[in-house]
């Protein structure tokens, strides 16, 4: 285990050390001490290494992550794992706004709750939230899967494209062009895999699926009121 | 019996034939007009300014003998590797999707020949433009289509787009005709749908967040490359000040004459400021922060000639950016395609339905047959020629004003032909010492 201490080392040096790792490194296990809400921590990683952040982080932790597995042993500020390409990010606590925003791939797990706009504009990422999520989740979500074990806020999936949304609890309201859809066997199988990878104690049959009605895919004046 | 004289038919200055035609079109369709390009209305512009040239108190430089440099460095404030350009004219962001791959290649080739940069657009970075652009600015847009760290790291600069002059406060829509399999793949969207681009960034709101977003992008790119912030001309003093305070290396201000691939005509013509009105407040903001020249100002929107370049620089720009003019140089709206423009219900010079993807010149299209009409090498040569002329014209004016570097042009070299232009550019009305609004 290699250790980086933000009480002694600058953010630049911590990130540079982690970013310098590549697929051939033998130093695959790292811990970062004293994050104390630092912004832009462990961003732009590009190697199959495991990083444990021993505390809470500020904005954009694990931003644009590729391949790395990053555990935050605390809560994460806005935009955690934004634009993630691959790898895994696990937040032991809660996540603030925009968790997983625009993510292209990989798995984001939030063990606590996630705030508003979770999965906004997601483009292929898988997100599993063990708790509840706030309003406007999966706004303009394009691809990927958002799984919520708890409840959702207002306007879930507003203007959604082809992302799949799975919710176990209540949905306060659905956004424009988002509808409940049939849970077919392939969805149950997909969900079972996501729940297992996220360490979630739930069964697929407890969830309902939501997705795009595809009524807003082509701009038409008669839909103007829905936009 | 003589005929009684009659009042001639008289058109309203308010309800002109064009206005009435638009009312009838709106009544028939129920939808607003969407088009490409920038504001077409007449607004105060660089044409309303004149250079004074040298005289008893100014010493000119010899046109063909004495050096007048044109180089510019963008982004040295924080970036370890700033962008070094041979000329103060860059190519503005235009997306693959809005433009064909051949057009993007031509822009890259032409800009590289001229020693300047080109810029991606919504939809990500293509191999055509990266491969053919020696200096490539990678736009960071609200949609984040195609955004990935690999392309971020192989960019020469990042341009965070907050807005653009044609539609400050607006997003975009690329209609399904242009969402080809390749465009759809790059944007992670189904093929053929009308694709919306958001008007706000998904993971930051306001200048305090932007400061942290800039930190993140710098951390991901190792503080190597400059970060520009582009805004549509709306509140140029405060927008420039806030962008600089948030940590931008370069601020890009785009006036309402700046083009877009597609948006509502009402948006283009009625939202935002003319380019001329935006420059001096932006410069003032940098001066007030003590950041003039440390943070560079790039101005775009309606730049057509070396005179426009020189005037923008004299008012305080470090460089300018061109989009529409570059497309025209490639071949957009060329009268050679007049018969086809007529078939589309328009005429060469007025064609602006770029969103429909039926561009006869093969530039604003994803139709493979139309796109094949543009020879990227020949088009690049035209762009290079045009950029050379812009540079020569700018040097001609700068020498006449006694400047050994175009950056030394200054407001004192200018006067205005109209009261409006004098007020906006903060230079005297021609033949007077009167600057409207200036209190001595």
Annotation keywords:
heterodimer, A: 227 residues, mainly beta, 2 domains, eleven-stranded mixed sheet, 2 helices, B: 440 residues, TIM Barrel, eight-stranded parallel sheet, 34% helix, glutamate synthase activity (chain B)
Topology:
The complex is a heterodimer of chains A (227) and B (440).
Chain A: E1 2-5, H1 11-19, E2 29-33, E3 50-53, E4 69-72, E5 88-91, E6 107-110, E7 123-129, E8 143-148, E9 164-167, E10 178-181, H2 185-197, E11 208-212
Chain B: H1 17-29, E1 34-37, E2 49-51, E3 72-74, E4 83-85, E5 89-91, H2 101-114, E6 118-119, H3 127-132, E7 136-140, H4 149-153, E8 157-161, E9 172-174, H5 181-187, E10 195-197, H6 206-220, E11 227-232, H7 236-245, E12 250-254, E13 260-264, H8 265-270, H9 275-288, E14 296-300, H10 306-314, E15 319-322, H11 324-330, H12 338-343, H13 368-371, H14 376-400, E16 414-416, H15 419-425
Parallel strand pairs in B: 5-15, 6-7, 7-8, 8-11, 11-12, 12-14, 14-15
Antiparallel strand pairs in B: 1-13, 2-16, 3-4, 9-10
Helix pairs in contact in B: 2-14, 7-9, 9-15, 10-14, 11-14
GO molecular function, one term (chain B): glutamate synthase activity
Protein name (chain B): FMN-binding glutamate synthase family protein
Pfam family, one (chain B): Glu_synthase
What does this structure look like?
The complex is a heterodimer of chains A (227) and B (440). Chain A is mainly beta. Chain A is 10% helix and 22% strand. In chain A, β1, α1 and β2 form a beta-alpha-beta unit. Chain B has an eight-stranded parallel sheet with strand order 5-15-14-12-11-8-7-6. In chain B, strands 1-13 form a two-stranded antiparallel ribbon. With 440 residues, chain B is of the alpha/beta class. In chain B, α7 crosses α9, α10 crosses α14 and α11 crosses α14. The N and C termini of chain B lie far apart (69 Å).
Short description:
The complex is a heterodimer of chains A (about 230) and B (about 450). Chain A is mainly β. Helices cover about 10% and strands about 20% of the residues of chain A.
């Amino acid at each position: 285990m290699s250790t980086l201490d933000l009480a002694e080392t600058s953010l630049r040096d911590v990130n540079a050390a982690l970013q310098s790792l590549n697929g051939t490194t033998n130093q695959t296990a790292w811990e970062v001490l004293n994050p104390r809400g630092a912004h832009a921590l462990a961003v732009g990683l590009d190697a199959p290494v495991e990083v444990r952040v021993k505390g809470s982080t500020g904005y954009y932790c694990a931003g644009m992550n590729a391949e790395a597995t990053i555990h935050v042993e605390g809560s994460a500020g806005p935009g955690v794992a934004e634009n993630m390409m691959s790898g895994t990010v696990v937040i032991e606590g809660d996540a603030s706004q925009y968790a997983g925003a625009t993510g292209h791939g990989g798995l984001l797990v939030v063990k606590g709750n996630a705030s508003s706009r979770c999965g906004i504009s997601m483009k292929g990422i898988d997100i599993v939230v063990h708790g509840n999520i706030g309003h406007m989740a999966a706004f303009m979500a394009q691809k990927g899967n958002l799984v919520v074990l708890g409840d959702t806020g207002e306007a879930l999936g507003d203007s959604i494209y082809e992302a799949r949304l799975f919710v176990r609890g209540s949905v306060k309201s659905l956004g424009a062009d988002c509808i409940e859809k049939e849970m077919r066997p392939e969805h149950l199988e997909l969900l079972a895999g996501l729940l297992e990878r996220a360490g979630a104690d739930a069964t697929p049959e407890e969830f309902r699926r939501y997705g795009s009605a595809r009524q807003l895919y082509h701009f038409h004046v008669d839909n103007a009121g829905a936009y | 019996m003589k005929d009684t004289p009659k009042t001639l038919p008289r058109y309203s200055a308010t309800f002109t034939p064009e206005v009435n035609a638009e009312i009838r079109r709106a009544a028939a369709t129920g939808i607003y007009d969407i088009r490409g390009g920038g504001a077409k209305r007449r607004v105060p512009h660089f044409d309303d300014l004149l250079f004074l040239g040298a005289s008893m108190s100014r010493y000119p430089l010899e046109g063909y003998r004495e050096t007048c440099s044109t180089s510019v460095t963008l982004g040295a404030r924080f970036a370890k590797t700033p962008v070094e350009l041979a000329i103060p004219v860059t190519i503005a962001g235009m997306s693959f999707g809005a433009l064909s791959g051949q057009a993007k290649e031509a822009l890259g080739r032409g800009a590289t020949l001229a020693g300047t940069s080109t810029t991606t657009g919504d939809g990500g970075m293509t191999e055509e433009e990266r491969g053919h652009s020696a200096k490539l600015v990678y736009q960071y847009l609200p949609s984040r289509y195609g955004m990935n760290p690999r392309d971020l790291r192989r960019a020469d600069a990042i341009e965070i787009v907050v807005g653009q002059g044609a539609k400050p406060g607006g997003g975009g829509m690329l209609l399904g005709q242009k969402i080809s399999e390749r465009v759809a793949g790059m944007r992670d969207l189904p093929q053929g749908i009308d694709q919306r681009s958001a008007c706000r960034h998904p993971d930051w709101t306001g200048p305090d967040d932007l400061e942290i977003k800039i930190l993140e992008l710098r951390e991901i790119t190792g503080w190597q490359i400059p970060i520009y912030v582009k805004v549509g001309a709306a509140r140029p003093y405060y927008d420039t000040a806030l962008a600089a305070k948030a940590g931008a290396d370069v601020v890009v201000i785009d006036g309402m004459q700046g083009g877009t691939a597609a948006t509502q005509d009402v948006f283009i013509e009625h939202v935002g400021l003319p380019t001329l009105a935006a420059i001096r407040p932006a410069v003032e903001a940098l001066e007030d922060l003590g950041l003039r020249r440390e943070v560079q100002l790039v101005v775009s929107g309606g730049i057509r000639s070396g005179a426009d370049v020189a005037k923008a620089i004299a008012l305080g720009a470090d460089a300018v950016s061109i989009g529409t003019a570059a497309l025209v140089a490639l071949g957009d709206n060329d009268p050679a395609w007049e018969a086809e423009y007529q078939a589309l219900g328009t005429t060469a010079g007025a064609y602006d339905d770029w969103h429909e993807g039926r561009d006869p010149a093969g530039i604003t299209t994803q139709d493979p047959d139309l796109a094949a009409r543009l020879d990227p090498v020949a088009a690049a040569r035209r762009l290079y020629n045009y950029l050379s002329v812009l540079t020569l014209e700018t040097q001609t004016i700068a020498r006449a004003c006694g400047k050994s570097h175009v950056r030394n042009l200054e407001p004192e070299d200018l006067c205005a032909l109209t009261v409006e232009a004098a007020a906006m550019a903060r230079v005297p009305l021609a033949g007077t010492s009167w600057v409207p609004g200036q209190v001595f």
